[in-house]
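Feature request, filed as a ticket because there's no other form

It would be nice if the structure record came with a short human-readable summary line next to the tokens. Right now we just get the raw output. Example of a typical job, pasted below so the devs can see what we mean:
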Amino acid sequence: MVRVFVREEFLDSEKIRLYFVWFVGTRGNHLWEFIRDLLVSKDTKLNPKIVKWENQEQGVFRFVESEAVAKMWGEKKCNPRMTYEKLSRAMRTYYGTEILRQVPKTGHYPKKLVYMFGPKATGWQA
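Raw output as currently delivered:
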């Protein structure tokens, strides 16, 4: 079950709407599981508005609203100072464990904000 709470805030002097998500009954204690749950959610407020699949068969996804995802993760982990810079650093640690992989630089995908699930990530396949 997904619970979505909406709160409006100012980010860089622009009013944005943040969607805070609590996944009830999921394992989502790890960052990659949280992102996986955002991607597989059927809630159209989340997918594709803040995170979306670039190629679901290969596990390639992109952050549309990177700061909103970081704020949601920070809210879940009780860290109000979470930024996308910190979140992306944490995501890169998953490269070594093969939960995430680097996206091939073939020109098929955007250069920034794009990640790919690795062979040890589970539950994202359609």
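Something like this underneath would help us a lot:
The longest helix spans residues 66-76.
The chain is about 25% helix and 30% strand.
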